[in-house]
Amino acid sequence: MKLNRMVKSRERFSNPEMVISGRIFYGNKLVSGSIAIANERIIRIGKNLKGDLNLDFGDRIILPGFTDMHVHFREPGMEHKENFETGSRAGLRGGITTYFDMPNTKPPADSFRRIKEKIEIAGKRSYSDFGIYGLVSETTEPENISNADACKIFMGASTASEEFGDYRNLRETLRKFQDKVIAVHPEHKDFIRKTASRTLMEHYLARKDAEIEAVKLMVNYKDLKFHLCHISVPECLDLLAEPGRITFETTPHHLLLNLKSGSGARYKVNPPLRTEEEQGKIYRAFLDGKVKILASDHAPHLLEEKENFETAPSGMPGIETMIPLLILLAKRGEIPIERVVKTGATAPAALFSLKKGEIKEGYYADLTVWDPTDIREIKDKEVWSKCGWSPFSGWSAVFPSHVYLRGSLMVEDYEFVGGRVGRHVGGLQEGKAKI
Ligand code: DOR
Ligand code: ZN
To answer: What is the model's pTM?
Structure first.
């Protein structure tokens, strides 16, 4: 009797709702195989598996869904630039199935009530899974933002964000929030020169030392854990060479663009784009595996705000093109595909204890399907983000043809077909973070 029941439950388990086949990223390489899915998860990986629904993608590549741990979706307060609907959809176009939204909204996400409201809004509107950052200032206590999935400290002011007050209180503040991922915007406020920024070069010079000095200060806090956002200066990589305790990200624009990429206000961003030489060093560090996390810092502003360099807000969109640009570079043999998967999917998901970012039994069935022969040009008018433009307009990329979020089809043949199935990561986290 007991045995019978066991066999029955095994039978049920072995009858997947769906099997997807193709060239799957498994064991750090691409192998022909099948992924069986049931109840939102990958239940088996093998050859010739069969389920209720069987989809064979042939030569196409199947990668895990990607996690973008740094986006600004502007809701509440600036929904004319982006909102949870448009931002999450734009992410799905680029293979991002999970994102973490920054707190510099209007009002900022700096209290339990405001974070709760934000989680509720995103819960209703997001098409993909989401986490919410809480803003930490000198006066924030852990109970104020206990419902946030991570916290953010702005050392220097950027778009719609207040700088941290007295740096003498920084260490104590970091200590209070050690049970969360603490992301820090590392631009030292005393080194951001308040001179006119009329050109890309002037903007660059005004903030050149700010990042190095901020990182120098932060690495002194040897007993504390934190994450540094958008590292863009090569000298900082040396300061951060000690592995483990401090995590950091770089962005697609600091990886692929530089001061020569364009001169207009579209390219104004904090931290600024760097010289060609500096960018080359960041790119090589990424290739060498020294950069563990890629995050878009998706910061949509409208084109009409991005006309006059001096008055334009800083920031550029990036969530929908980040992975597609890198997949093309991987196809061309310039970057190992493994680097794209590890930095864009595996490492950020692990940092937040999500069973995502790997094609592995027991993990959520967030899957992206890519046809590397289908190379498309990025065009402003085809951008899914509400802001309607991309700093990579005119560049070529490979977008995912199909995207699955926990087994649900969200993108089919490059078209959005998804429902509002996005879920708060609070209900998805398991185990201890490891990276
Ligand atoms: O350029 C930036 N834009 N840097 C930031 O830190 C914030 C962001 C934004 O929210 O627009
Ligand atoms: Zn940001």
So the answer is: 0.95
